[in-house]
Amino acid sequence: MLFASYGFILFLTLLVVVYYLIPRKHQWKLLLGASYLFYYFSGPENLLYIFFTSLSTYVVAVRIDTLQKSQALHLAENSGRLSREEKKAYRALAKSRQRKWLMLCLVLNLGVLAVTKYTNFAVANINSVLRTLGSGTRLSFWNIALPMGISFYTFQTMSYIMDVYRGKHPAEDNFFRLALFTCFFPQLVQGPISRFEDLSKTLYSEHPFDSQNVSLGLQRIMWGFFKKVVLADRILVAVNTIIRNPGMYQGVFVSIGMLFYAYQLYADFTGGIDITIGIAQVLGIKVKENFKRPYFSKSTAEYWRRWHITMGTWFKDYPFYPLSVSGPMLRFSKYSRRRFGDGLGKRIPVYVSTIIVWFTTGLWHGASWNFIVWGLLNGIVIIISLECQPLYDWFHSRFNVKHTFPFRLFQVVRTVLLMSAIRMFDCYRDVPLTFRMLGTMFTDFNVGELTGEALLGLGLGMADYLVLLAGLVALIAVSLLQRDGSVRNKLAVKSAPVRFAIYYVLIISILVLGAYGMGYDSSQFIYNQF
Amino acid sequence: MEILLEILSELHPDVDFESCDTLIDDNILDSFDIITLIAEISSEFDVNIPAEEIVPENFNSAKALYALIERLLDQ
Question: Are both A164 and A72 inside the same structural domain?
Fold first, then answer.
């Protein structure tokens, strides 16, 4: 069920009405039922996967929690009798028992993700190797559909079980509550990847009808729909024309495709998250923000702190830190410093962790080489920029421009262009083709080709370009206003005619200017495929 | 504490680590700094800081970080 469809709007309306009519203590149970129903529409068999992941996570988390409590009790009861060494040995043994359970859970949950998402990728690569070796043997592809949102909910349950293991919070002892955390429907489409300690604060609470909250949530949903159906789905046509005809559209058109895709992805992904957070707010539930004006970032590292924030912090907290402070990595760090000196020797282990984590990030986005190359390039750009730091320091010691507007603007434009260029691997879905097309921006760049006729040949009319231009102005204006507080709160203190004029413009824009296909079904969100 | 302050100053010579208590909140230390710091602490103090201890409360100031090292040494 797509967010931008009649079916979903009906589903949501009914849910909200019933949600505020039933006794409040049953609200979270209704959400669980509604979430499973929503998920059922993505394919009935998908329910089995999500149920299995919820169950395995629940059982193991409760087991780890029980072990932690009994071990803490044992230490407290025997604190006078045990020596410091004995306590240390006991703690190590206790942690190792918990780690075995943790590993079991990770293997089970990641196993489901690996089988459903990566089997055919592995088969394709094995077949390539067999072909290269001259063997006539080929493995068959497995006919299996990727369950919707599996990458998101698997990561969400992994963060939950890791946090229980780390003692950050106790295990949830009610299976159905954990099941709701895993399948809360607004997040199933494209995240964000919530943490249990954040989402659980409001997910199970009793929510009386709060007209202000509902109004703010609806405004956020409208803004999300505007970005998705008016902007993202409109510019999608031009992006597809360029990407699907690489023989015809090269050079200057690749740069246009790159900028258009940056626009499309921003409107699509942030629009989807606006809808998710808006729906949650209508229900009285607080979901964490996933973006912080990412296109205003001045470096790649900053961009990744502001774009898809919940994914970035997930990769930082779970694979990056444990990998970087693991025994083997610390030993490698010591070796590296002995071998390469205190400067480079210190940085090499950090770079190794960075590359491993970005490889994993790429693989998480999709089971194909273009995503892996995309991930690796992000890591490489971050490393290069760190290695260039002395050069930047030298430049800033000579030229006092660091805090000037033109230099900041240069940094922002550079970051957007760099991120947009790397993202073309996501567009073309073919590594050699992407490199070739990016190359044509330097070898066949002819601005003269960019005539009005050529732009109209991309599938968009003059009216479409005007809508996209107005949309761009609106996106930039909202981002600028957001710098010192919520735009909706600012709007709330305006006079009624101003407020309602803006609401009506937004609603009419969605209804009249939305890029609707046959049967009024918008296209799926880009991040839904991950 | 002096050794720790030396390690920190090597990372960011321009920061007053004795008084600053918003090293994480103000993005003074990023994830790369934290990893470099943990590797340095491991070799200087012979103590391993596990991933679960990498939380803002432990890294926001030199004092908090030193308290963490002492706690881990004591365990």
Answer: yes
